[in-house]
Write a structure and sequence with these properties.
Belongs to the PGAP3 family. GO terms for molecular function: hydrolase activity, acting on ester bonds. There is one protein chain. This protein has 503 residues and is mostly helical. It has a two-stranded antiparallel sheet. Among the domains are: 102 residues, no CATH class; 221 residues, Rhopdopsin 7-helix transmembrane proteins. Helix content is 57%, strand content 1%.
Amino acid sequence: MHPPTRRRTVAAAVLALVLAAEPTWASVGDRSPAYQRCTAVCRQQLCRDSPSKPASSPPDSHPAPFSAYSPSLLWPCEATCSYACQQYLTDLALSHSPRPSARETEPGGALEGLPLGHQVQFHGKWPFHRLDFSSLPLVPFLPLRLVGLFLPRLQEPLSVFFSLANLYAHYLGLVSLRTLHRRGRMQEGRRLARVYEVYAWTGLNAWIWSVVFHTRDVGWTERADYFAAAWTMVASLWVAVVRIQGWYASSSKGKTLAPSQRRAALVWTASLVALFLLHCAYLGLRDRFDYTYNMRFNVLVALSTIFLWALWTLAQSRLPTPSNFSRRQLSSYPSARSRFRAPHYLSPLPPLLLLPALTALELLDFPPLGPGGLRLLDAHALWHASTVPVVRMWYAFLVRDVRWIDGQGEGGDPNSVLPRVPAAVRRTGAEEGEGEGGAKWVLEKVLSEGRRMTGLGTGGGLGIFGGFGAAGGEHGAGGEAEGKGTGEGQGEGAEVNRDGRRD
């Protein structure tokens, strides 16, 4: 056995750190006596039903401006006091130079238990400046002045904005896939577009809940955000297997899926749905959310998806590139594409490798920054911003993949016609039926070229999930391409061949 290389050792170490990482619970801010006194005084002043008594404040403490805050529908009184004290104490701490001997940090001081000159987390969160729409000048002039109670006060404004940007990116991808589904030339292309639409819908759902969660961070919005993200990860894994196995296209001459394909797809779908439900039940029934398990679950599913697409890319790389003749005719015979390399076979690698690399931004976890002392941008918001172009890259691959299976775009000219057929073949075609001989001749020529050039791709295939290694997973069975010589491809070829004869 060869000793592990340094690259393998580093990769294993990084993976171990990710899987073994624990969430940070060290919230210095909410455990400090200064914060506890501040919230007690605020609740006494703002919360009419609060049973707490005002805590004694030292004479040199600065009174927090609680009158500037008011509860709302999404921000009840206790949450408003927590936010007000976080902002007040953070501003006060940043206004002092970091001197450990300062009086403010001594017992009874205004900043007791808090470091000077630094930001700290409260309840596991940084003290962001929220975007309060209820304080706009328009609100007092609205009827009954009650609309301000329903206007959102965005807890993490930039994370909300970047989540909306990701939501829009998924929406654009969904529109492109739905267009391909409606206007597809081949049944296989339309079905594959519908498979990819499943991923697009789960992505939309995930980013909607991300917007809700970053608007107001409470228990149920947090769990909804995590569950929606996990559902997107599971859907990505489902899509990868369906695409690679070819369960979107028939492996026989008929237009419907074969019984074996139906059973396999049903078992795979039911298994992932059961896995997701068990995942949600485990997290939802626990008294305390298991962040470590949730992170490991998502990492494992994501790595499995990346691994499958990497295998698909490897299998495609072992297939031959179509010649000029085959490239012109593949649009007329999409079923023959399983024998040739897809032009976009490297396209899934950049987004799949960039996404986990950009996730490293979460490890930075720096205090929020912003102009004029505003606390807006943190590592999590930066990560949301970085995923927008990655989402666009991924949908570009999905669209190109559907077009390839549908006989559009690269690898074939939709306006191409079959070349002139030799006279002997034309006579044979006349006996069998008009146009059939020419269609068979071109299809056999394309397939024979693929068989001649795929000795390495088929003989040394990966053999993963049945026909994946032999056919690159285009249709799940290599016999479909040859069987279509007298089926769908023949009809298309005959029509185009007649056009070719007129030339």
